[in-house]
Amino acid sequence: MIGTGRLGPGERIPPEGELCEELGVSRGSLREAVRMLAALGVIEPRHGSGTYVSQLRPQDVIGSLSLTLELLPLSGLLEVYEIRRVLEAHVAAQAAARSTPETVDTLFSLIEDMEATTDPAKASELDHRFHAEIARVGGNPTLATLLAVFRARSRKYQVFTLPEGPELRRKSDDDHRVLATAIADHDPVAAAGAAQAHVAQTERWLRAFMPPVEEVGGAD
User: Fold this and answer.
1) CA distance 23 to 17
2) Rounded Cα distance, 38 and 42, in Å
């Protein structure tokens, strides 16, 4: 009903009994479906009022992927990186075309904070904010949300805490400066190349330094 547009954003779903009769299912099956759709952000149960179709904003529905992506083992995450390379390159190119002096200031400020901190957790958060800012400027909220979901899973693997971490961080910081400079120069081609190379480098580090998830105590 929702997929065909019979029930649109913000509309109230028919009463349980009516739906069970029309769909030919039990109340238990219907309630399970309602719980699943609510978890996915498709519908919104409202206490004392009924159940309504959400606004169905693409970024909200895409964000629900985090429920399952968080369960991927390292091998699955590495497959996702092929998608991420393409998408990060695209948003970087878009950001380079649309960047403002304020955008550039924000990116370089985040880089300086990353270079200054010795706390791996803080560096990871700053790294996320750096890439999120680029995606935001890219102008597609749905794409920005999808990339944020990908990055959230990647952050569970902390290569910077390894013995090789300091050298890896220096390389990552250098990559960030190359990417930010391309965006500051309004050079979409250079920005796309820098973003793709940066993500590919992270993928190589994960392959080289991180054991399978079952070997690190189920570090989800």
Assistant:
1) 10
2) 6
Structure tokens at 193: 């190349």
Residues 113-146 pLDDT 10s: 999 988 888 888 999 999 999 999 999 999 999 9
What is the rounded CA–CA span in Å between residue 197 and residue 207?
15
pLDDT digits (tens, 9 = 90+) for 104-121: 999 999 999 999 988 888
* AA letter at 209: F
Residue 202 belongs to what H/E stretch?
helix 188-209
Euclidean distance between CA atoms 35 and 5, whole angstroms: 20
Give φ, ψ of 167 to 5 degrees: -70, -40
Provide the token pair at 3: 């997929």
Q: What is the pLDDT of residues 6-48, one digit of tens each?
A: 999 999 999 999 999 999 999 999 999 999 999 888 999 888 8
The Cα 107–Cα 176 span in angstroms is: 9
User: CA-CA distance, 40 to 96, in Å (whole number)?
Assistant: 33
Q: Which residue has the tokens 């309504």?
A: 52
Helices 120-138 and 165-184: angle between axes, nearest 10 degrees: 20
Contact 194, 202 (CB under 8 A): no
